[in-house]
Amino acid sequence: MSEKRAPLIGFLVVFIVLGILWIWYPFGTPGRDHIPLTTIYPLTENARETQGIYALVYWITLAVFLGVEGLLVYALFRFRRRGDETAPPEQTHGHTTLEVGWTLATVLLVLVMYVPSCQAIRFHQGKPPSANPLIIDVTGRQWFWEFYYPEFDLTTANEIVVPQGRTVLFNVTSTDVIHSLWFPAMGGKRDAVPGRTQPLWFTPTELGNYHGQCTEYCGSSHALMQMDITVRPQAEFDAWIAGQKAPADPASMAGFGMFAASGCIACHMTMQNDKTVLHMNGPNLMKVASRKRIAAGILENTPENLKLWIHDPQHVKPDAKMNVPAMQCTGPGQPDPCCRDVQIGNCLAPETVDQLVSYLEMLK
Ligand code: CUA
Predict the structure, then answer these.
(1) Centroid of ligand 1 to alpha carbon of 190 (angstroms)
(2) Which amino acids bring their CB within 6 angstroms of ligand 1?
(3) Which atom belonging to ligand 1 lies closest to the Cα atom of 192?
(4) 118-127, 196-205, 314-323: lowest mean pLDDT where?
(5) Half-sphere exposure of residue 43, counting CA atoms within 13 Å on the CB side?
(6) Which 8-state DSSP code applies to residue 3?
(7) How far is the CA of 217 from the centre of ligand 1 (A)?
(8) Which residue, of 18, 119, 132, 179, is most buried by count of CB atoms within 10 Å of its CB?
């Protein structure tokens, strides 16, 4: 290979690899199950609306890329130095037609993307299509999601179930900093802003379980603020609601004493999940054993993980607000670290943690 050609060939290789990646990325990726936070497998009309704009922008930018790079490659070959040419090529300056042309073409392309974007924003910001949507009040917290179903007077956390085919209308707010509610497959994001309540709606039609993620930086455990939405047939949704509203298993009552004595009750309620428990410091735990995950979507809900979480929440979720007053750490026989660090797990004897885990496991 001549020295003159090496850079040209290198450029061509980069061009081809970039082109393949560009085409492969959106269309060749391995499916939603492997990338739960992707928007490119839309499952609601709202998500398809957004995906349509994404696809439009994709094809326009691909055409621009191929056009510009194609001209560049053409020029590289067509006007390369030949033989023993030594004089510089003819120099030109300014070309009114060209300059007006590429300015107008750019404006036109931007307009082609701008108009449907405005239409989509109107669609998303508009009223939900149903006169009787399922309303869910959402409160972002550092670092979990509180969900309240006014229709059923039900408070839960981090995991919601909705019926297939009924429009869901979220009223989104926050009690501390700005968070953002986002279920990628369902489409749309809505910021959770303290002092404001903002709507987000969609109509889930596909059964299944879909992942969500806080998408506004909200502090050290922002990335660990996740949630799930499960779409079920109406009958299964009704059964889920009934299960969530059912009173606790009487056999679990024995564990409540330890739960209260350990200080957990200062932030978590296990005996009720109606409106009166809204905005407690921690997630409602009345039916915690029915959830798939704990700690806002971070850990599978297993006895081992519950134990790990209660023992050392800061290790699992940095700066989690799970602690107890220091006065509870001064009792005789307490393990030493608790006086240095008031995190709740360090203040509890291992057998106490075991008892708490057994109790929480009964809250189905
Ligand atoms: Cu909440 Cu990021």
Answers:
(1) 12
(2) 140, 143, 179, 214, 216-218, 222, 225
(3) 1
(4) 314-323
(5) 21
(6) T
(7) 5
(8) 179
pLDDT digits (tens, 9 = 90+) for 296-345: 889 999 999 998 888 888 888 888 888 643 334 545 554 444 444 444 54
How much is the pLDDT for 254? 86
Within 13 Å of residue 22, how many CA atoms lie on the same side as its CB? 17
Give the atom of ligand 1 at the shortest distance from the alpha carbon of 140: 1
Distance (Å, rounded) from C-alpha 330 to C-alpha 129? 58
For residue 217, the ligand 1 atom closest to its alpha carbon is 2
**For the chain, how are helix, strand and coil distributed in percent, rounded to 5?**
45, 15, 35
What is the spatial distance between Cα 361 and Cα 221, in angstroms, rounded to a whole number?
25
pLDDT level of residue 41 (50, 70, 90 thresholds): confident
What are the C-alpha distances in Å from 134 to residues 129, 148, 170, 191, 236? 12, 11, 8, 20, 15
- Ligand 1: which residue has its CA nearest to atom 1? 179
For the segment 111-122, what is each residue's pLDDT rounded down to a tens digit? 999 999 999 999
Run of H or E including 362: none
* CA 264 to centroid of ligand 1, rounded, Å: 24
The amino acid present at 28, given as its one-letter code, is G
Average pLDDT over residues 171-175: 97
Instruction: For residue 35, give both structure tokens.
Output: 């990338």
Q: Quick one: which of 265, 274, 204 has its CA closest to 246?
A: 274
154, β-bridge pairs: 149
SS3 194: strand
Separation of alpha carbons 262 and 310, rounded Å: 11
Whether the pLDDT of residue 256 is over 70: the answer is yes
